[in-house]
Amino acid sequence: MRIEQSPEFQIHLQTLRSKEELFLETIYNVGNGHLGVRDSNPLQGNNHDYIGSPGLFINGFFDYEEVAYGEKYRGYPDNNQVINRLFDPRFIRIKVGHEDSMTDHFKVENIDKNLDMQTGLLHELFSVTTPENRNFNLVVESFASLSKLNVYGVRYSIIPTNFSDEVEVIKVHDYVNQTVHQQDEDVRVSTDLGQMQLDFIPDNGQPSYLVTTFRSQQGAIITYEASENFAPNPPIEYFRDDNHHYGYRSKYYAKPGSAKDFEFLFAIGDIHPLVNANMYSDQYLSSLNNYINDTSFKSELMASAQVWQTFWLHSDVEIDGDPALQLCVRFNLFELNQSAGRDELTSIPAKGLTGNGYGGHFFWDTEIFMLPFFAYTQPDVARELLMFRYHTLQIAKEQASDFGFGKGAMYPWRTINGYESSAYWLAGQAQFHINADIAFAVEQYYEITDDDDFIRNYGFEIILETARFWMEYGNYADIDGKHQFVLNRVTGPDEYSALVDNNYYTNVLAQHNLRLAVKYVRKFKGDDGILSRLHVTDEEIAAMRDAADAMYLPYDKAKNVKLQFQNFEQLPKMDLAAIDQSMFPLLLHYHPLMLYRHQVNKQADTVMVDFMFPEGNTVDQLKADYEFYEPITTHDSSLSKAIYAIIAARIGKDQQAYNFFSQAVQTDLMDVYHNTKNGIHAGSLGAAWEGIMYGFAGIVNNASSFSLEPHLPSTWNCLKFKVHLYGDEFKFTIYQDSVAVELMNGEGADITVYKQQKNLTPENPRETWKY
Ligand code: IFM
To answer: CB 3.0-4.6 Å disulfide test: which of 377, 431, 478, 507 passes with 315?
Structure first.
């Protein structure tokens, strides 16, 4: 089956620069925020000779191992969590006469792959040749449903080209820990723990399993069903044998040119605590069955495709004048949407659901680089992502207490279940800015959506508890003749420095966090229920206000630049030009201390502040910061270039803005960092969206009214997108010399373009600005 689709939304194999198998496994993943399946050679299964890293990832399904420290001090994180890699659900076994893909070497060539992002359907054509030179085409179509997040569908079509013989198709998944053979020394790639257990659930007419983890004590039910086949397709039957092989098989006589189809729907359950999974497995299984029984691959695909169409209707970004980057932008948005957890219990792993890089952990990447995309285009998803932080707030409070603090919440730098999972605490746990990043995101979401219920019942508590953390962590000190509030021994966003005093980014974000707490306490004053429930006192809030006002922000007056941290100016610069390209990223080739003692940045750090808090900055200040930090930044983190693009656009460095943006936006599709094989760079894909919105469209973030100052690249004729604002939806069409805005639905609002404010209402839904 082919659905007619538009080439502007398709990723064809021919258009990809790299055809490397592991890279293709990532690019052609399908996912939906609950599950993600890497592409693979579908005949390999758990074959130990296969050079690939296929598998199924379920968001939030992980196990852990104890971190082995030489010397473990109090409060060091105990465990390293790693997302589990389950069996490859694409796997199928095919026998041709006496030849068997399980035991004989069938040669599998990629002829075509096409990911249709409008429908979420991955269509692939392989040419398969047996050792005795019998050849058949194998078409594999697959999708992860967006309409039922537990459903994954795969469909096979077998078309012999040069033989007539008996063919047997067998679909059995009797192992759970997928073997991978990818040898990679990169520290950012995690080793699979491979500790899951697969138990068959007593026969119910289709293969059903309970998959459990050893240490994290989680359980998930997985079941799959073959669609009933009617002529001309041969019947397919369920079987089980004494070796606990449960599955489906079909045997038929194949002839050249005649296609036979086999389709399967998987239902991949939610994660439960092991004890519940054991106790209620029948109940969970029967609700899963409802998703896949009495339906078909086609109906589920259609339902999911419809959700994708709605996604594009609201979230697409159209660039007229840059077809190559346009495709990258769409790929990025598609991947973001495939990666976002939507159950309030999960977030977006740094690699999406496309690999186990960074252990499958959630970082600040979600709140700072990806959440804005969702807040502006799918506010419900943004809320769900923030609710993950709310549901783990108790753990964050526990962690603060374990750390030795009397109050407040200390969110983990990296986690799956809410507990800290950074084995290298210097560049991990010490990145305390995560607390203020989350508070920043809460505020940003609220400003964009006006979601009162959220801020009142959840968001405020996050802001308050994180603000309390800063009051516990910081202290007053006399600096430059003033009594100032300081945050010493913290690690900022730049991971080429650690444990510094007064990181500019951290201090500004903490100041913002404290001010937010004060602002919301004022808002909820008189609403005693909230403030007394959270034990807020006037003294506490006055202390927060004072600390925010007294926050020390290191500044180099001679150079007029915001200092990355106190005494940063005393470090020598690293001669980056003299370092051979093969030595980048530096983190893989230098001892961390060699980096920490130099002025060298892995990624935007102080410049992040200029991006996130544009108000009050002169263009001269932005320029001074940019010109100071850009030459010492390696952009070894994929989160960096898009942010530099934004500042470059704001200070009129048009060519640099475009260059940085185009590299950021191509991160995965063009494999800019040569490691897309390990999974997508989800944060970078979100950052590229920010590059368009905050850089080229010039949205001013956190403003009380929505304003923009566009700086389109000169080759772009027009940029179009829609955003949700205060519950309404607006469509923006930006040309080189004008902006048109249309109220698509809702009550209307003020929009400001180049400082000129206009009011859009249902009676006056269109306005144009010329400049
Ligand atoms: O969160 C990032 C960090 O800023 C740089 N190292 C990788 C992390 C995960 O993407």
So the answer is: 377
Is the pLDDT confidence value at 693 over 80? Answer: yes
The residue type of 661 is F
| Best CA proximity match to 176, nearest among 156, 188, 193 | 193
pLDDT digits (tens, 9 = 90+) for 255-285: 999 999 999 999 999 999 999 999 999 999 9
What is the pLDDT, as a whole number, of residue 186?
81
- Whether 5 has a binding-site annotation, put simply, is no
One-character DSSP codes across 10-27: EEEGGG-S---HHHHHHH
Q: For this structure, is 495 an active site residue?
A: yes
- Buried b / exposed e over 440-468, threshold 16 CB at 10 Å, is bbbbbbbbbbebeebbbebbbbbbbbbbb
- Burial group, residue 571, by CB count within 10 angstroms (0-12, 13-18, 19+): middle
Res. 204 pLDDT band, cuts 50 70 90: confident
- Confidence at 1, pLDDT banded by 50, 70, 90: very low
Q: Give the end of a domain, one of 647, 671, 703.
A: 703
Evaluate: CB of 465 within 6 angstroms of ligand 1: no
Return phi, psi of residue 69, to 5°: -95, 150
- Which of 495, 540, 630, 690 is catalytic? The answer is 495
365 is in an annotated binding site: yes
Q: DSSP for 546-595?
A: HHHHTB---EETTTTEE-SSTTGGGSPBP-GGGS-GGG-SGGGTS-HHHH
CB of residue 363 inside a 6 A radius of ligand 1? yes
Closest ligand 1 atom number to CA of residue 602: 5
How far is the C-alpha of 621 from the C-alpha of 605, rounded, in Å? Answer: 15
Domain count of the chain?
Answer: 2
Is residue 519 domain-shared with residue 444, that is, in the same domain?
yes
Confirm whether 150 is domain-assigned: yes
* Domain end point (choices 253, 281, 311): 311
Q: How far, in Å, are 69, 78, 448, 467, 519 from residue 541 at the CA level?
A: 40, 34, 26, 10, 10
Pick from 637, 640, 587: nearest CA to 185: 587
- Residue 616: the pLDDT is 85
CA-CA distance, 384 to 481, in Å (whole number)? 46
pLDDT of residue 241: 81
pLDDT band of residue 3 (cuts 50, 70, 90) is low
Protein residue with its CA nearest to atom 6 in ligand 1 = 637
Q: Residue 690 falls within a domain, yes or no?
A: yes
716 annotated to a ligand binding site: no
Q: What is the pTM of this model?
A: 0.97
- Residue-level pLDDT at 704: 66
Q: Specify the pLDDT at position 182.
A: 65
Nearest-CA residue for atom 5 of ligand 1: 637
Beta carbon of 626 within 6 Å of any ligand 1 atom: no
